Amino acid sequence: MCNNIYIMPLFNYYILKFGFNFYKHKIKCLVITFLLIIFFPFNELYSNNLCDNLAALEADPNRTSKPILFEDLMPNQVIKNCTLAIQKSKNSENISRFYLQRARGYLKTGNITDAVSDLNKSYELGYPVAAFALATLFYLGDDVTQDFGLAKKLYIESYDDGVIWAAKGLYFLYSDPSYINNDKNLANIWKNLFESSIKE
């Protein structure tokens, strides 16, 4: 029933701003509902899952919530809510995303063992951005043994699966003087691919 929709924040905003009374003006209520569906598609309203809301990754093309910067993560809340989401979800794609996002919480706390375990689970479930996340760990080598060859393989794999941020990773990799196969021309190609994809 339309009378129940007024509890949504967007509708509360319209009530305050325009003085609509949905109990007296049901036609206006229906019109506004229609307009909100047109101008705010469901996939843009974002997920109501706390794991998604607390830990969505910007590089993830399949994220369902507004991205959260690493420095803004609340790791204990991320771990708690993503664990609950994993336990309750019956959809493998959702579970693979929840593992990825919980890994961000573990990384923030410095628990690299559980972070890598979650990233591997997400990767094994076929979640594309998990390959990107693992590639970045192996490229940086801060918490795991640095492995440029594995990083390159995983970056290319994730790029082929639609993760455009992998192109930026490959740009950094081929620009790195520590990488034996560094190549300024290839680095610029990947940089241009990333920048052109972001502009689209």
Q: Could you please describe the fold and organization of this structure?
A:
The protein has about 200 residues and is mainly α. It is built from eleven helices and no strands. It has helices at about 10-20, 25-40, 40-45, 50-55, 75-90, 90-110, 110-125, 130-140, 150-160, 165-175, 185-200. Helix 6 (about 90-110) packs antiparallel against helix 7 and helix 10 (about 165-175) runs antiparallel to helix 11 (about 185-200). The longest helix is centred in the middle third of the chain and has 18 residues, at about 90-110. The radius of gyration is 21 Å and the shape is globular. The protein starts with 8 loop residues before the first helix and ends with a helix. The model is unreliable at about 1-25 and about 25-45 (pLDDT under 50).
Q: What order do the helices and strands come in, and which of them pair?
A:
Blueprint: H1 9-18, H2 26-39, H3 42-45, H4 50-55, H5 75-88, H6 92-109, H7 112-124, H8 128-140, H9 148-160, H10 165-175, H11 184-199
Helix pairs in contact: 5-6, 6-7, 7-8, 8-9, 8-10, 9-10, 10-11
Keywords:
66% helix; 11 helices; mainly alpha; single chain; 200 residues
